[in-house]
Amino acid sequence: MANLKQSIKRIKQNNKRKLINKMTVSIVRTYVKKFLKSLIIKDLALSLKAYSLATSKIDKSVTKGVFHKNKANRLKSRLFLRLKKIGM
């Protein structure tokens, strides 16, 4: 257990940030799954809307510092390739 006041504060901050990061990753995964489900239905309009929402959430996670920008770009690129396959 930490003895110094600053290290106790750091532990609290880290735990708080961990929860926020976990929540953000969960939200991104949810929107990516919604996009993938819309691809299975093969509804282009729904897929485009889901893609837009998913990329928006991915970009927000980068600004919050949860994802690295390269990981976000890689993920968005993979989603776009799947969107192209159904005939965008």
UniProtKB/TrEMBL annotation:
GO cellular component terms, A-Z: small ribosomal subunit
Superkingdom, taxonomy of origin: Bacteria
Family of the protein in this entry: Belongs to the bacterial ribosomal protein bS20 family.
Stated role: Binds directly to 16S ribosomal RNA.
UniProt KW keywords: Ribonucleoprotein, Ribosomal protein, RNA-binding, rRNA-binding
Protein name: Small ribosomal subunit protein bS20
InterPro entries: Ribosomal_bS20, Ribosomal_bS20_sf
DNA-binding found in the keyword field: no
GO biological process: translation
Pfam families in alphabetical order: Ribosomal_S20p (PF01649)
Any GO MF annotation of the entry: structural constituent of ribosome
Organism of this sequence: Candidatus Azoamicus ciliaticola
